[in-house]
Amino acid sequence: MYSKINHIFFDLDHTLWDFDKNSEKAFAAIFAEVLPEINLGDFVKIYAPINQACWKLYQNNLITHDELRYKRLKDSFDALNISVSDGMINKISEDYILHLPNSNHLFEGCVETLEYLHRKYKLHIITNGFAEVQFKKLNNSGIHHFFDTVTNSEMAGVKKPHSGIFDHALSKASAQKEESVMIGDCLDADVAGAINFGMQSIFFNSEKVNVSKDINQITNLVELKKLF
């Protein structure tokens, strides 16, 4: 199936970089200093789905960059019935962006798989994440050298699943659709976005959710070594 592939494009968060685990560590450091009364486990349980919902709004241009950063915290504190001032929310938001790239847990098999693929293919990143943070994640986690190009939504002017970001990424990589594949954890942004653009795609299904048999999927990154 992938015999003609020369370029492999990866999403970063929730695909290579373990966003949930690293996010929890960032909040642990922040709350220990400014809100020690908060139970981290309770907060993370509430925050994770709210964050995902906010990213979907951002992805569809329904909220801005700044609104995303505020809303995901405000909605989480409200859901926990914890009163936190706007000033404190903004401080936590800023501190979170500073702390987040400091913990760099990668998904199981990430480095092993990238080392294998890097010997045979050109590897790239396409992310909707904010440029200032994404480059720090790649550098701090020690995987930046695997990738020939990194495309983010800010430089492309549009976000996945918009075809424009895929077009921008392929142009930057000097790649053609028919020789490229997109791998990511989001069915809408990564899988459908790539398919609608005309690229092949692979769904990184680490949560093992039920999906159509028509969708190419893996549940562990090391499975890519058998596919390529």
Ordered list of secondary-structure elements with their pairings:
Elements: E1 7-10, H1 19-34, H2 40-59, H3 65-79, H4 86-99, H5 110-118, E2 122-127, H6 131-140, E3 149-152, H7 153-156, H8 163-173, E4 180-184, H9 187-197, E5 200-204, E6 217-218, H10 224-227
Parallel strand pairs: 1-2, 1-4, 2-3, 4-5, 5-6
Gist of the model:
The protein is 50% helix and 11% strand. The chain has 228 residues and is an alpha/beta fold.
Account of the protein in words:
- The protein has 10 helices and 6 strands, in the order βαααααβαβααβαββα.
- By secondary structure, it is α/β, with parallel strands linked by helices.
- Strands 3-2-1-4-5-6 form a 6-stranded parallel sheet, sandwiched between helices.
- α6 links the parallel β2 and β3.
- α2 runs antiparallel to α3 and α3 crosses α4.
- The radius of gyration is 18 Å and the shape is globular.
- The mean pLDDT is 95.
Alpha carbon gap, first and last residue: 9 Å
DSSP strand tally: 6
SSE sequence, one letter per element: EHHHHHEHEHHEHEEH
What is the CATH class name of the largest domain? Alpha Beta
Whole-number average pLDDT? 95
- The CATH topology of the largest domain is given as Rossmann fold
Q: Tell me, briefly, the overall form.
A: globular
Rg result: 18 Å
GO molecular function, one term: 5'-nucleotidase activity
InterPro entries: HAD-like_sf, HAD-SF_hydro_IA, HAD-SF_hydro_IA_YjjG/PynA, HAD_2, HAD_sf, PGP-like_dom2, Pyrimidine_5'-ntase_YjjG
Keywords: Hydrolase
Protein name: Putative hydrolase of the HAD superfamily
